[in-house]
Amino acid sequence: MINTAQLLADEAKYCSFGDTVHYVNPPKIFTGCDGSYMYDDAGTPYLDLQMWYSAVNFGYKNKRLEAKMIEQLQELPQVASQYLHPTKIELAKFIAEDAKQKWGHDGRVHFNVGGAQAIEDSLKVVRNASGGKSLMFAFEGGYHGRTLGASSITSSYRYRRRFGHFSDRAQFIPFPYPFRRPKGMTAEEYADQIVREFARKFENEYHAVWDPKTNQCEYAAFYVEPIQGTGGYVVPPPNFFKGLKKVLDDHGVLMVVDEIQMGFWRTGTLWSVENFGIKPDVLVFAKALTNGLNALSGLWAREELINPTVFPPGSTHSTFASNPLGTALGLEVMKMTHEMDFGRQVRESGAYFLEGLKELQKRHKEIGDVDGLGLALRAEICTEDGFTPNKALLDKMVDIGLEGGLEYQGQKRGLVLDVGGYYKNVITFAPSLMISRPEIDEAMVLLDQLLTKAKQA
């Protein structure tokens, strides 16, 4: 048993509150994990439906990946990043060859240690490729990290508010949000309208981004999440990205695809962008590459953007980039998920989970919308009208879930949920991609119980 009260008192005195651990009060302390569950010091299982913001896609304590980490730890755990080691090269080759097969482009892979750091590297790549242009397009509701560069292309002002003026802040474009689209429009019509409005920026020089005399845009790239993560797992209509990519290609603007949260099979494909039939110019990845066992991230970029002539050694660097523990794990993740039709497994589990959410929606009118792709799923919590955002109710649900007082088959249970969305009223479900049917059934029972308790609180 741990002394929770003493630990929380020490945390309050000695730990910075700036590293975003305080989503609930008091913060929850976990002492164990396995598969789809976290455990508190009393041994109570908490079914985790967010898996460390989709970093642990393949389950806690995944035996195959842990064995690979131990093997690498005993063989070559450390090496300075100016030297080479086998798995860095092998992992880069695996990702680059997969991209060539899917998109027809030669490209290279560049590693770093976290999602925001890889975003920073991608900003260097596109600024360098565009002759130093520092302006970017990005989406309202988009999230790309909290470093200074990543904050400039993340739409939430609250991440920038206390750190001075960001002169290179992105121009933010609306994202097609099907549940909250304008009345009288289909989701596809709404997507087409957003593309048309964006295309108007290039009609003439007075729309401020385009010089028709030189055919040059002031903006270097458009940063996109194919499915918005922190924005609430918003799935755009299937026609949206093809229309947007055509506008960008017609005007020489690069598309940088952020797969930090949705990559590595979350949506039933290796990369979520594969669901929308477009080819990225740059793709950024992190999180589940190592199943949360090691901080490793990276980017893939087309050859002409990142070859050594245009992006030479030292263009960007991190001491721990491409560390051997991380690249060995990443390579094992790629091998493990390509030995079978892993995407099919995810899609089938996602369909089963989504059906359960729809049944739950029938019993609780406060669930205004359910949607998803693969095992990236959403439930929008509303007032009884089924539309007005109800952040207060979801906050109660999160708190009750972390109290560990739910019941399943006569045993105590907790439930770990993540909150997202423009109005912080969306449960963003990112369960283990290995989640079983019985665990999904348990999730529905616990969610039903949780909603009932929260409405009564």
TrEMBL record:
Cofactor dependence is on:
pyridoxal 5'-phosphate
What GO terms are given for molecular function?
A: transaminase activity
Cross-referenced InterPro entries, in alphabetical order?
A: Aminotrans_3, Aminotrans_3_PPA_site, Class-III_PLP-dep_AT, PyrdxlP-dep_Trfase, PyrdxlP-dep_Trfase_major, PyrdxlP-dep_Trfase_small
- The keyword Transferase is annotated on this UniProt entry: yes
Checking Pfam families in the record gives:
Aminotran_3
Keywords from UniProt, A to Z, are:
Aminotransferase, Pyridoxal phosphate, Transferase
PROSITE patterns assigned to the protein according to its UniProt record, in alphabetical order: AA_TRANSFER_CLASS_3
* Domain of life of the source: Bacteria
Q: Does the keyword Cell inner membrane apply?
A: no
What does the similarity note say? Answer: Belongs to the class-III pyridoxal-phosphate-dependent aminotransferase family.
Q: Per its record, how is this protein called by name?
A: Aspartate aminotransferase family protein
Say which species the protein is native to: Comamonas guangdongensis
